[in-house]
């Protein structure tokens, strides 16, 4: 898995947007690394929103899903909007079946942008 984060020039209400891009498999060998990067983003940037870009993610197992949930909770506790973006059809299906697409919010660059949601606490 490769992971990178960067401040986006895209404006969002309330502060900066940070995009965390993930490439490859998200599994038990690296899910802590992914969650750790998101926690570091929260600490470094105090963003208004985090978008986890999954366009290049190829696989996720249950520990990866657990890490996404933990990252979502950390973002929610910080008052930060958390979304995932551009999941593959298979990835989108996993998020839908588990109900996580409703929890996180899923952005698709092929669809019009959804309005920003408020964070559930």
UniProtKB/TrEMBL annotation:
SUPFAM superfamilies: SpoIIaa-like. Residues 17-121 form the STAS domain. GO terms for molecular function: anti-sigma factor antagonist activity. Pfam families: STAS. PROSITE patterns: STAS. Signal peptide: none annotated. Gene3D superfamilies: STAS domain. Belongs to the anti-sigma-factor antagonist family. This is Anti-sigma factor antagonist. The lineage of its organism: Bacteria, Bacillati, Actinomycetota, Actinomycetes, Micromonosporales.
């Amino acid at each position: 898995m490769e992971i990178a984060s960067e401040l986006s020039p895209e404006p969002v209400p309330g502060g900066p947007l940070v995009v965390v891009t993930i490439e490859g498999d998200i599994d038990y060998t690296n899910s802590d690394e992914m969650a750790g990067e998101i926690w570091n983003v929260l600490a470094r940037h105090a963003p208004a929103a985090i978008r986890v870009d999954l366009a290049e993610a190829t696989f996720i197992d249950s520990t990866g899903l657990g890490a996404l949930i933990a990252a979502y909770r950390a973002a929610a506790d910080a008052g930060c909007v958390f979304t995932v973006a551009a999941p593959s059809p298979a990835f989108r299906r996993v998020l839908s079946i588990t109900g996580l697409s409703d929890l996180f919010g899923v952005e698709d660059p092929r669809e019009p942008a959804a309005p920003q949601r408020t964070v559930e606490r």
